[in-house]
Amino acid sequence: MIPVRYNVRNLRVRWMTTLMTVIGTALVVAASVLTLSLIAGIDHALRISGHELDLIALRKGSTDEISSGLEQKVAREVSSLPGIARDAAGQPLCSVEFVTILTKPRRNNQGTTNIIVRGLEPVGRSLRPDFKITEGRDLNPGLNEAITSRQMAERFENLRLGEKLEINKRDFTVVGYFEASGSSAESEVWTDLKDVTLARATPEVATTVNLRAQDMDARKTLIDALENDKRFLMSAVTEIDYFKEQLSASYALWVIGIIIASFLIVGASFAASNTMFAAVASRSREIGTLRALGFDRRAILISFLLESVILCSLGGVLGCICVLPFSGFSTGTANWQQFSEITFSARLSPLVLSAGILLAVGMGLFGGLLPAIRAVGMNIITALRER
Amino acid sequence: MKTFKYIWRNVTRNWIRSSLTILSVGVSLGLMTLLYGFIASQDEWGKEAKKNNRIVVMNVQGFSGQLPIASVDTVRGMQGVDAAVPYSWYGGKYQNKEMPFAQFATDPNEVFNVWPEFTISEEELKAFKENRQGCVVDRRLLAKWGWKVGDRIPLQGTFYPFDLDLQIVGAFDSPQNTDSIWFSWSYLDEGLKQKNFARTGNSGTIFARVGSAEVMPAVIKAIDDRFESSDSPTRSQTEAAFAQMFVDMLGNVRSYIQSIAIAVVFSLSLVTANSMAMSMRERVTEIAVLKAIGFSRLRVLSMILGESMVVTFIGACIGFLIGCMWLQLLNSAIPQYFPFKPAEMIGPWMLTTFVAAAGIGLVSGLIPALKAAQLSVVDGLRRIG
User: Fold this and answer.
1) Is-contact A128 A135, C-beta < 8 A?
2) Which end of chain B is more exposed for a tag (fewer CB within 10 A), N or C?
3) Is B126 exposed, middle or buried (0-12, 13-18, 19+ CB in 10 A)?
4) pLDDT at A387
5) How far is A21 from chain B (nearest CA, A)?
6) Helices (H), chain B
7) CA-nearest residue of chain B to A111?
8) Cβ–Cβ under 8 Å, residues A352 and A36
9) Is B154 within 8 Å of chain A by CB?
10) Total number of domains in chain A
11) What is the pLDDT of residue A250?
12) Which domain covers residue A341, as residue numbers?
């Protein structure tokens, strides 16, 4: 086998061409990795939101909270069903919630979008992953107070600490920021169940019952109980399934991402191919010499493929480094299922980064194949005779 | 002409390199065409909406708010308003697929006065008005699902606890694919009343048509003032602004797409510059010979710039074709995201791709061309390999 050092030196000697190809590949990889990291961000937000023992009960026929509608009185009876987990104080982990969407402006004149306002009682907090107040304090019921996440406060008008959000001519004061492991709760504004239903002039209405089962068996029993009990007219789905459904939010991004990535990868591998063809053409004498020294065709093929892969991987690594500053960069997109915006952060997980490198390696292999075959096909005598 | 022949010979002599560069430019500019086409199609939506002097009235709280059905009559009676209808999103499932097309509850008697650019035959319109469970369908939707007039369309409600059993009584033609069916608002509302649904008598949104564009701001203000102190205050806007709301919902997708496009153009300049530089390195002696026999610097410069521009121009043409093919494909596959055919949105964005291609050709050819122009004849002739 021809030492790898030979390839590295060659790349260094032709540094100008190498640099240009590397930067070109790096841009392509950066664009793809960034797209992937956004998709990973949405995926993460929705995946972490689903606890395997948690159920979401909605009005029969509804597929999301926005379109659901329940009577609060009936919804509260759910907590008496057997099999619901209890917190330390012995209270059932069963939360009656009211969700509505409000059309509100983004900051910096970025247009308007719908934000989710959720009214709930204290028990609802223990059903979110690692819910904690990070700044300010939690809201007090009855005072028209609200809490939200820092990302939401940065994205929307009227959501910073101390600012007032108007709901049906009533002002709700933002008193705190919370975190919930980056789950979809961080895309919402929370207030008290009673306060928001009064403001919306629908005092007896709820949309959702969020509950946690004791164990997997209880989960099954609870789903059946809610489905079959005529009192409720509800149906329950596991949170995991519920959020899986919402992954369609990332569907548009997926489509855009895949189209962008595949176009760019094909384009960039043509470019890599070009560079490698030039490398082969200008080194025909070297190739002839190598063959004359006794390196077989396979060694030449591997050597040139390797050079191409090294070339593109350099670009891949550079591209990944370029997007690192974007890690945690928070943005939002339409969640059509909820007809509102989901806020999420770019996640440069190891998986996303290695996908970027893998793309670069793929480009190198694909782009280097034809030039390498040409190098292998050279006749030793003619190759040696070339200038 | 002779110069062009020389340029063409140079382009074709290392055909592998040229075609790789052309393909690389073509594929990437294809992507750019596609992305810009996507943005253009959204702008087109707004432009289309501007033509028709329609106002959309909704509850000030947005889509979750209600507008009592009596408001429609109030709006209809206001000065400057020609016609108004309730327009309520049903969002039902068909054959267990979620929202396979848009479904709106509206007023059969007036709806074609609000959308006068949509056409339907007299008999079908009459049937729509008379048949309580009748619905009319965008003709493209009819073809897509293979429906015929007379077919039954059962829809399961998700938002509303009332399932619809609709019968197609006709098809309408519209300038763009609306992907929608219209049915009678009262059929839905009566059904909801039977189910004791809490929020009956809700018109959802109101679409109103006014006589001319000039009076629109005044009418909008008049409507909002009229409902200001009622139980459901309104927020009215032009249809164009309403369409913009949906575009806004996509969030940063637009700026994201633009930054991708910039990255593409930049990376392409590098790629093409690289391939031009490679060609030049192999041709140093040749260029020295040209200069020795009396070619001026300017001529050498323009020959090389011309070469890189020919390559990128061919790439741009291919890219443009690829992009338009994709747009066409996406238009027929997912009309809700790509409502327009590329032929329907001819505009400056198409020029952008060609300008970008010319720019790439110019920028990438510049350094090799300058180098060649400044090449000393003696050095060039002396050089080997």
Assistant:
1) no
2) N
3) middle
4) 61
5) 7
6) 2-13, 15-50, 70-76, 111-114, 122-130, 139-145, 185-194, 216-227, 239-249, 253-282, 284-292, 297-333, 348-374, 377-382
7) B248
8) yes
9) no
10) 2
11) 67
12) 4-47+249-385
Residue A238, domain member (yes or no) = no
Based on the fold, state whether residues A103 and A226 are members of the same structural domain.
yes
What's the complex ipTM? Answer: 0.73
The encoded tokens of residue A204 equal 């007896």
On whether both A277 and A194 belong to a single domain, the answer is no
Write out residues 99-138 of B within 8 Å (CB-CB) of A: none
Check whether B385 has a pLDDT greater than 60: no
**What are B115-152's pLDDT values in tens digits?**
999 999 999 999 999 999 999 999 988 888 899 999 99
The reply to whether residue B64 touches residue A101, judged by beta carbons under 8 angstroms, is yes
Q: Which of A172, A197, A232 is the last residue of a domain?
A: A232
Q: How many CB atoms lie within 10 A of CB A117?
A: 26
* Chain A residues near residue B244 by CB distance under 8 angstroms: 111
A302 shares a domain with A191: no
Who's near A244: CB < 8 A, 6+ residues apart?
A46, A50
Last residue of a domain, one of A170, A203, A232: A232
Mean pLDDT by 10 residues, chain A (387 residues): 87 87 89 87 84 89 79 89 88 92 83 87 90 93 93 90 88 93 89 91 87 92 88 87 76 76 84 86 86 90 93 94 85 72 84 91 91 88 79
Find how far residue B140's CA is from the centre of its chain.
18
pLDDT at B201 over 60: yes
Q: Which of residues 137-166 of A touch B (CB under 8 A)?
A: none
A63 interfaces chain B, CB cutoff of 8 Å: yes
Give the tens place of pLDDT for each residue, B23-59.
Answer: 888 888 888 888 888 878 777 777 777 778 899 998 8
Look at residue B179 and tell me whether its pLDDT is greater than 80.
yes
Q: What is the pLDDT of residue A44?
A: 85
DSSP B227-295: HTTSSS-EEEEEHHHHHHHHHHHTTTHHHHHHHHHHHHHHHHHHHHHHHHHHHHHHTHHHHHHHHHTT-
What's the pLDDT at B37?
83
> Is B4's pLDDT higher than 60?
yes
A86 and A16, same structural domain? no
Residues A260 and A158 reside in one and the same domain: no
| Confidence label for B241 from pLDDT (cuts 50, 70 and 90) | confident
Computed on alpha carbons and rounded to an integer, the radius of gyration of chain B in Å comes to 30
Q: Look at residue A339 and tell me if it is in a domain.
A: yes
Ramachandran bin of B53, using left for φ above 0, alpha for ψ from -120 to 50, beta for the remaining angles: left
Contact list in B for residue A188 (CB cut-off 8 A) is none
Could you tell me if A264 and A170 lie in one domain?
no
DSSP secondary structure string for all residues of B14-54:
THHHHHHHHHHHHHHHHHHHHHHHHHHHHHHHHHHHHTTTE
Token pair 């339907």 is found at: B120
At B251 the pLDDT is 66
* Cβ contact, residue pair B250, A334, below 8 Å: yes
Residue A237 located in a structural domain: no
Those residues whose C-beta lies under 8 Å from the C-beta of residue B51, and which sit 6 or more positions away, are: none
Question: Model confidence over B96-122: pLDDT tens digits?
Answer: 887 788 899 999 999 999 999 999 999
Residue A161: name the closest of A181, A137, A183 by CA: A137
Query: Does residue A186 sit in the same domain as residue A134?
Result: yes
B260 touches A: beta carbon within 8 Å: yes
- A316 domain-assigned: yes
Q: Which of B24, B159, B249 sits opposite A113 (nearest CB)?
A: B249
